[in-house]
Amino acid sequence: CETCSKEEAKYRCPRCMKYSCSLLCVKKHKLALSCNGVRDKTAFVSVNEFTDLNLLSDYRFLEDVGRTADAAARHCIVHSPATKRLLYCLRNKARGCNIELKTLPVGFTKRRENSTTFNSLENKFYWHLKLVFPHCHAEYTVKGVPDDKTLADILKPYIDPVESDPVVCQRLKIYTASPQSDVRILMKIENRNRNSVRYNELDASRSLLDNLKGKVIIEYPTLFVVLKTLKNDMVVLGQ
User: Fold this and answer.
1) Where is the signal peptide (predicted)?
2) Which of 3, 20, 25, 147 has its CA 20 to 30 A from that of 107?
3) pTM metric for this prediction
4) pLDDT over 60 at 78, yes or no
């Protein structure tokens, strides 16, 4: 047993492959390793270790995905005239701002999460935003962000040494301790090959709308906040 090192192991965790001798040790290992005990169906398997069981597992996984996609396509909300009209309006308004907004079918996480709206009276988008801070492994979701707000103002509650929330500030300490001139805001370029990932660098002093013009957005923008000295693995377009 890899938990107590006393008894002979009887069980093996499908997730992390740790050996355990009893239900108590199984629970302890899950708590210590934050393991849910569920086999990772998409875990990488090298060609040398690939067996018929792995092939069968992949086949069943794809069948499950197909059934889920089919069920989502049959959902009543998909065929709702109001839903279609709303999505058409959003895409049309975005096109008028030189933004190519793409929406996903019902059932996808980003489609379910997206809360972006367009206010016709103000002629303004209120965006659903995801902010990713990769150096701290932190993500935050911001809803109802007006398109005329600058990126610098959007980030103030997170990385500004004075105005940020104390709890958030502590978690993002590496950002708040760095000079603001070292902070870079990147956005992944969509519709590229998976082995050719590139990012656009955005201008923090300009509005969200100005930064999104001429770009492809799938559901809502995801902004990566990185430090100039630590973004070696994130290639900006043109470099």
Assistant:
1) none
2) 147
3) 0.63
4) no
